[in-house]
Design brief:
Blueprint lengths: L9 H19 L5 H9 L4 H25 L17 H12 L10 H12 L7
Length: 129
């Protein structure tokens, strides 16, 4: 049986390419920051509408990620208990959370973090017996 010869740098090159791909994948999935949201809201006539659509998507994404986590065994933080969240509630949840915790959120924090904390506050789960 003949052993295959590898170029000494091929393994490290493969590792570097794999690492670069993972880094690109991680940055592609990042959400909008609070600074970017404020800029979007100030941009043109449609900026506020685009921001509102983004907030609805962020709210739905947080709820879906939370549901997935609970199905995987995580402790629930958001308990709707049969209540329906309308898409129009996304803006109010976001604004209320920012007002309630004024000065806590930095401009580089994600909109999704604010939305997750807003939903966990408004739709908090009981502590149980």
């Amino acid at each position: 049986m003949q052993a295959t010869k590898r170029h000494p740098g091929s393994l490290s090159r493969t590792f570097v390419l794999l690492l670069a791909g993972l880094l690109c994948l991680g940055t592609a999935a990042s959400g909008m920051t609070l600074r970017e949201m404020r800029l979007l809201e100030k941009s043109g006539k449609q900026g506020v509408n685009y921001a509102n659509y983004y907030l609805v998507g962020a709210m739905e994404g947080v709820l879906e990620a939370h549901a997935h986590g609970v199905r995987s065994g995580a402790r629930p933080r958001i308990c709707l208990e049969g209540r329906e969240i309308r898409p129009s509630a996304a803006r109010n949840l976001y604004d209320t959370e920012l007002q309630r915790n004024e000065g806590v959120y930095e401009a580089d924090m994600s909109v999704e973090l604010v939305m997750a904390n807003a939903l966990a506050t408004v739709y908090a789960c009981g502590t149980g017996p």
